[in-house]
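Two entries, shown back to back:
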Amino acid sequence: MKFATKAIREGQQPDPTTGAVIVPIYQTANFAFKGVGKPNLFEYSRSGNPTRSAFEKCLASLEEAKYGLAFSSGMAAVDAAISILRHGDHVISSENIYGGTFRLFENVAVPRGIRFTYVDGTRPEAFAEAICKETKLVWIETPANPLLQLVDVKAVSEITRKHKLILVADNTFPSPCFQRPLTQGADVVVHSTTKYISGHSDVIEGAIVTNNEQIYTNYVFYQNAVGAVPGPFDCWLSLRGLKTLAVRMKKHEENALKVAQWLSSHPKAANVIYPGLESHPQHMLAKSQMDGFGAIVTFQLRGGMKAVEKFVDGLEIFLFAESLGGVESLVCHPWSMSHGAMSREEKGKIKITDGTIRLSIGIEDVDDLIGDIDKTLIGVDI
């Protein structure tokens, strides 16, 4: 089956009891045993639930993975992904990553004795240069939040294979519709399924997929032992989101390219970043390792913080809100929002400024979106 078909059918056979076409919401905490020491297929919903299993199976199939695990948030999935590390282990991460991931690494993992080195993810050789005897894992996010730098997954995977390291890729921005890192050499893929996978801004959830049985076994233990699992209704909503992922992503991308092209010629928008633009320094890499360019457009607003405040206040269709990936268009100020936990110096190092604007382009009429930005920029001083 091809992608759009798998999204609708994989793991979603009619209910064997009633024939229901849609996977039921098994809103139950526990399941009756057949007898002493004789559990049914499911025992307790922290350990497993039929609705969650359907979602995990479907998402895994879309990433061309054997195994999938759902978690209660994207950050719970990130925490689970590094749960295989121990005191003294070393991680190499691309320096441009989601601010929440950086916060977890520095404020949760570092106090546990795990060490991190951050490198320029656009240079595959930078990962090789940072390897030491304690290195166990390499973390990449591509395209990166919010400046959309790409990491050459195949090139980095060659390095990690040579040194027997685990390569984890955050694939939230492109979704499996546009990128499947496991097929390019990654060992583990992490998602905030809150974003494009659920697609409607009504779920907080995360996921991990892998083809490595030993890694999967470790994650299954951690998932059950820690218990950061999503409820059945959240899994049902995300499973519903998967059904329309292919068509939504195509419309997201179509709109994003038009917005990016329009912004590129606007005198008040500087450094417009979108992988689908030929001006993107890694445009050719995006074409080679992605099936689409995604729906995030980032630019610098001339005028800094005051201009940002005026821009945000003037918008009517775009909503000023955290997160991304829903059908509605959102605007984010990374300096104070997604990367607010980073210091001024840390943000400056990865070139996030107080004038950086991140647009999550939805599936509204693109003329309305451009019109909303246009009329707003008119009143912004530069």
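entry 2 starts here
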Amino acid sequence: MKKVFLLALALIAFNFASAQEEGSSTASGQTAKGKWLIEANTGFGGAHTADTGIRFMSQGDVSSWNIGLDGGYFIMDDLALKAGLGYGAFDNGTTDTNTFSYKIGAKYYVISKIPVSLDYTGSSTKDAVEDPSYLGFGAGYAIFLGENVSIEPGLRYNLSLNDDFTEDGLFRINIGFALHF
């Protein structure tokens, strides 16, 4: 897992070093102070019960799905404070569990193109002995498709904060879709 995480950091560093942005102005103002951000993320590479993204997985009798959104407000150019909510379910044929997830954090757009995020994510599951919580780190690249839309492929690592729930962290590849207004 450490090798994968180091590879992800190396790719992010390469992406940052090869970015060809001149000047310090934001990309058409999408990340300017006072703007709002609404995003939906899809995640590949593992699912966890504290998720504010969109996913569906099914294998044999086991299925799991989640739907959620994140929103944010740019308190200064390129820096947004964010919050997210999600709802999902897990069914393995004998157990059917519903989960409510929440997220709070910040997202900074380096040179207005490279989103880097830090957040706390947790969930609440009815009748669960332990609920998970994670410290998430993410980075990617924002591809702006006009004044109000961006696609943000990226990498994310969720570090487990609750050893009673799980000691394992989770590495994911995300594709985010964002509205800026």
